[in-house]
């Protein structure tokens, strides 16, 4: 983990950010531990934490016993004041819109979901979003919302907050950040929804200490977010992470992206439902849990397909960890064992240097927490 600060006046803001990020990663901890992690001087840590305490973002929470210098020595413990800062996360996925009120610690205190009609024009969607977001914001009386983060499916220009192309919804060139910021007079950040999920896992999930990891989301499609050197990797104007559109079968099923044989045509929720002619993914999962051989086979085959693509990914680009999110990433389903088995069978680098393939720590709320993480990251932790 690279979390080094600097010790000169010109970099005070950078140092402040490093202290806040250290608290996020370490949880309840001492000034001494923060100094060790950031390589900042004790004087710098003392000054910065005093300032953060005055601002209400950090507070002292009693004594902390640590085994250093002499047994049982007590240090004053510091923690983030989680309810000191609030944002709203907006998750836009295929057919669904989700809102959440989220605090500095990544906890969702208020949430609302609604289905999106199948055929909405860009303008109809924009009008619906502003109306529903206003309704959600009007229901927040107890705290002040400081920023809005939006995670949206599709190709996103993060710098400008523009949805360049969300083909599954037939949307193009929606100036989402500008639209929402103008309506609510708050800072607004927009990114691809799975990159937001990766950020959530980095900030609040099980990947706090992983410097390089891939977050894979299995939904109606398949997307991924990559974290390198503790930061989300975007890779250019349209970002990176379209692992669902890696070719899995040469001349396979037609994909909406224009290619053929894409992974998500064989391993996504939609692909499994289509294959089994089932009413929903939930129906498939329930059949699987009841021992239905056909459902179990379909889910296992989807896991093998994902594992095949991940094996090539690991051979080309070794990461510390791969975390998988979505309804198929469940301990009671055969999906994840099939992923791990296929990666182990196909990737020679995996067998030389193991990559942890784990369930995402954040489950049902990963979309809205991811969107909120985007706003928290840039308004508080990296400001």
Protein architecture, described:
- With 383 residues, the chain is an alpha/beta fold.
- The chain is built from 13 helices and 16 strands.
- The protein has helices spanning 12-26, 31-38, 42-55, 122-138, 176-184, 193-204, 264-267, 269-276, 281-289, 293-316, 335-346, 348-352, 366-381; strands at 29-30, 58-68, 70-80, 86-93, 96-103, 108-115, 145-152, 155-157, 162-166, 171-174, 188-192, 213-218, 222-228, 231-233, 321-325, 356-359.
- Strands 6-5-4-7-11 form a five-stranded mixed β-sheet. It has a five-stranded mixed β-sheet with strand order 14-13-12-15-16, with helices on both faces.
- Strand 12 and strand 13 (222-228) form a beta hairpin.
- The radius of gyration is 22 Å and the shape is globular.
- The model has no long low-confidence stretch (mean pLDDT 92).
Helix content: 25-40%
Structural class: alpha/beta
Supply the number of helical segments.
13
Low-pLDDT residue spans: none
List the helices and strands and how they pair.
Elements: H1 12-26, E1 29-30, H2 31-38, H3 42-55, E2 58-68, E3 70-80, E4 86-93, E5 96-103, E6 108-115, H4 122-138, E7 145-152, E8 155-157, E9 162-166, E10 171-174, H5 176-184, E11 188-192, H6 193-204, E12 213-218, E13 222-228, E14 231-233, H7 264-267, H8 269-276, H9 281-289, H10 293-316, E15 321-325, H11 335-346, H12 348-352, E16 356-359, H13 366-381
Parallel strand pairs: 4-7, 7-11, 12-15, 15-16
Antiparallel strand pairs: 1-3, 2-3, 4-5, 5-6, 8-9, 9-10, 12-13, 13-14
